[in-house]
């Protein structure tokens, strides 16, 4: 029995062409930059009351409580019940004792709903609060 040995033919090496790789990466980068939507804040739809003396607060020092005209609550994009507000705020205060609770309440929110919310915050000693308003030019 004779064994025949097969000789390998020298062929082209398997190489991935990378000459256009930078162009493809650049085009993908541009595509994703153009098509990406950045979501800054998403709360309940509210129509803020007008104010002539409004000031900005640093974003990392603030927890937003959104209240729509039906009185529904949202804390930092999460829908919550009034009874859960105290526990959530207490957890946030444990992480950041200098935290300011900012209300973004619709101008038509019933006063008793705001009073109930303030009572829940008093129970957990959250006394640094801010009421957000749309800026209105002063009349002279």
What's a concise summary of this model?
By secondary structure, the chain is α/β, with parallel strands linked by helices. It has helices at 21-35, 82-95, 111-123; strands at 50-51, 62-67, 73-75, 78-80, 100-105, 129-131, 134-135. It is elongated, with a radius of gyration of 29 Å.
Write the layout of secondary structure elements.
Layout: H1 21-35, E1 50-51, E2 62-67, E3 73-75, E4 78-80, H2 82-95, E5 100-105, H3 111-123, E6 129-131, E7 134-135
Parallel strand pairs: 1-7, 2-5, 5-6
Antiparallel strand pairs: 2-3, 3-4
Helix pairs in contact: 2-3
Please give a structural write-up.
This protein has 140 residues and is of the alpha/beta class. The chain has a domain at 50-135: Nucleotidyltransferase, domain 5 (2-Layer Sandwich). It has 3 helices and 7 strands. The strands form 2 sheets. It has a 5-stranded mixed sheet, with helices on one face. Strands 1-7 form a two-stranded parallel ribbon. α2 packs across α3 (111-123). The chain is elongated, with a radius of gyration of 29 Å. The chain starts with 20 loop residues before the first helix and ends in a 5-residue tail after the last strand. The model has no long low-confidence stretch (mean pLDDT 77).
């Amino acid at each position: 029995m004779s064994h025949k040995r097969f000789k390998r033919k020298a062929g082209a090496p398997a190489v991935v062409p990378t000459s256009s790789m930078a162009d493809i990466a650049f085009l993908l980068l541009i595509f994703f930059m153009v098509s990406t939507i950045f979501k800054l804040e998403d709360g309940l739809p509210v129509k803020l009351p007008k104010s002539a003396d409004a000031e900005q607060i640093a974003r990392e020092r603030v927890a937003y409580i959104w209240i729509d005209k039906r009185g529904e609550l949202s804390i930092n994009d999460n829908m919550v019940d009034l009874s859960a507000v105290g526990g959530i705020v207490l957890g946030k205060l444990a992480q950041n004792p200098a935290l300011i609770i900012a209300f973004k309440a619709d101008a038509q929110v019933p006063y008793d709903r705001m009073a109930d919310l303030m009572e829940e915050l008093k129970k957990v000693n959250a006394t640094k609060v801010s009421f957000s308003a749309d800026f209105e030019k002063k009349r002279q």
